[in-house]
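Page 42, continued from yesterday. The earlier attempt failed because a stray header line got pasted into the input along with the sequence. Redoing it now with the clean sequence only.
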Amino acid sequence: MISKLILIIILISSILFVFINNRFSILLFFSLYSIIIAFSYMYFEAPDVAISEIVIGACFIPLVVSGGMSNQLQFDVYYRDYDKDIKNKMQKYCDSKDLKHHKVSHDDAQNYEANGVLSNINIDVVVMKNMDRFIIEIHPNSLVHKEIEKFFFDRDDVDIVEMEILDVKNN
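This time it went through. Structure tokens are written below.
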């Protein structure tokens, strides 16, 4: 009876796991799920596996993933040319995705630039003005191209293009 209850709890918790949207809630739930699995291992008389599950599943993996996620929660934007409306829309985009809008300073960006081409992959978006149009360059590895286009659909003076990255290692 208890073994069936344990398996039902594991089944329900694994189904609930799919419906969580918040990144940090997923990590917290993953740790809780690992603890539930560890208790099931203890019940089924596998204490060595239970200890491994707690150490790796409930502690180590969430720490490593949260460290990686903290870098992904910042959206770096370099404004070569400033426009208040564009900055506000970038901020709204970041707010909608729970990202920290980080304005890269001109001095920092100069360290990344060679002949007008960015050589550092840490900048997600570059905003610049060419004549009477704004150009928003998005990093080629970024998955936000279509989403950012939605935020700027009402601006006829904005072109959204893929950023050209200079491979410093091969030059």
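Notes: The chain is about 55% helix and 20% strand.
Reminder to self: strip header lines before submitting.
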